[in-house]
Every structure is written in structure tokens, then in C-alpha cells.
Amino acid sequence: MEPADLEQLEHKAIVFYDGTCGFCQGTVQLVLRHNKKQDLYFAALQSGMLEALVPGQQLPEVLPDSILFYEKGRLYAESEAALRIAGYLNFPLSILSVFRIIPLSFRDFVYRFVARNRYRIAGRTESCLLPSPAQRARFVG
């Protein structure tokens, strides 16, 4: 990826998700439907975009069991990522972001339980979802 392209991405809010996880892909579809401002962008963890955008030493140890959220030069993982993403959604889903008042350790405990069981919940896929032509511009990886 060209440095100019990376510089443009540094100013976008990007959701990094497991492209082989049915639960994760379903979540991306939900976010696409409820982010009417269209100010969220998406990339599969498998795309290599995360490694290009964030130096390796800054990557969290929770990969690939976590959704990651890149916003204003910072990378968030697990429940913090999910709740920050919720803040970009339309009402009433945006209200979910108030759960950030719950202690991080408890939120991440619940998040990890769901993450460990996500393939049992929604299965595994061999390929990433196919966005509609209108949604393709929001996929950066």
C-alpha cells in the first residue's frame, strides 16, 4: 500500500473483523445497515490492512479473537472496540455505547466468552462477505 493511501486511512474510523467468522460478518452487516452517516469503514483482519496501518509492536495480543477498531490514530480491542463502534450507529443502537461505564474487566470477560464461542453461534466461512456495490467503497482492505 502506498504511503499516501495509508495517510488517508489514518483519518478514518475502521472496523477490523474476522473475515472467516459468520458471527463477525453478520455484525458487519448490522453495522452497515445502522451507520447511516456511512462514516465507518471495514477491513478483514486477514486482509493485511491492519499490519500496514499499525506497526506490529502495537497490535494487541487478542488477535484474531477480537474485533478491532481504529479511530483517530488509536486501536481499540474487545468490548471497548465494540462499544465505540456502537457510538457510530443510529439511535437506538447508539445507546449501547453507555455500557462503557461498566468496568472494562467485566465487559471484556463477557466479550471473550462470546468471542470464544462465535463459531458455534454462527459458524465459519471460507470467504469474506460480498458487499453490495454501494457498500464496496467502505471496505478498505
UniProtKB/TrEMBL annotation:
GO molecular function, one term: protein-disulfide reductase activity
InterPro entries assigned: DCC1-like, DCC_oxidoreductase
PANTHER family, per the entry: DUF393 DOMAIN-CONTAINING PROTEIN (PTHR33639:SF2), THIOL-DISULFIDE OXIDOREDUCTASE DCC (PTHR33639)
Protein's name in the database: Predicted thiol-disulfide oxidoreductase YuxK, DCC family
Pfam families for this protein: DCC1-like (PF04134)
Species assigned in the record: Pontibacter akesuensis
